[in-house]
Amino acid sequence: MEPGATTALYPLHRCKTIYLVRHAQGIHNVAGEKDFGAYMSHDLFDAQLTPLGWSQVDGLREHVKKSGLAEKIELVISSPLLRTMQTAVGVFGGEKYTDGVNAPPLMVENAGHSGRPAVSSLNCPPFIAVETCREHLGVHPCDKRRSITEYRPLFPAIDFSLIENDEDVLWEPDVREANEAVALRGMKFMDWLWTREEKEIAIVSHSGFLFHTLSMYSKECHPTIRDEVSKQCAAFSYSRKRSLNIYKWFRRRFANCELRSMVLVDRSMLGSYSPRFNYPGKIPAGLDLPSDIADKKLVEEAEKN
Fold it and tell me: Has 135 been annotated as catalytic?
């Protein structure tokens, strides 16, 4: 086996673990499945989750808790649309909110006509809304967000401070964002993650954003993997088999409420963090000539003589 042909080593402080989640089923998914033209309907503006979608949220929440992932995540990032924030809070938020607790809820009761109880912000990671991980911008009303002024009373403990404009100035009624632009935005979002100190981050986003972003990253694979990625594959359906090939991993679209975990590596020194777990050694200082260096010095001395 050639050295470095199948494996690679990276310093731990140059890596983050990210947990990518697509939102649960929204009312636009149901309407669009029946008639793609429904995506043009203004009745689907900022689509909320369906009852089935909330069942999907409950299922993923149970998995996150049973797997121990709930204790690992340090930050939850959500696209600032109703369906993604409902999913993020439902999966990664605290338990049911109790009146009188000295902490605002992550989500108030019946937010977005959900029929769900309020969700506590206690005993869970912080939540922030980030505009960069939104779905394709433009044309489809379901992908247009409400004003931040409307969202804040619904999600009091979500941090909206990174969103510059109260109104949705990015969505245009007559221009649909190109796939290439979505992919570029996804790459910029991944680079932005290196401005965060957190190492374990959950990201709740959308099918198109996740698909095109991961498609760009699949091009960075080792040539043998890239060849497999580029192969044509007709199977886009959700599969639970452990033998999923790399094409399906990167190139198939996310199912509603699907979670995939990946390691993000900083190869361009974007982050400026020092390693938390490394230790310099030689404390207290002492003689520590390594045996392999000693062997080399003995050979050098012998050659001199």
Answer: yes
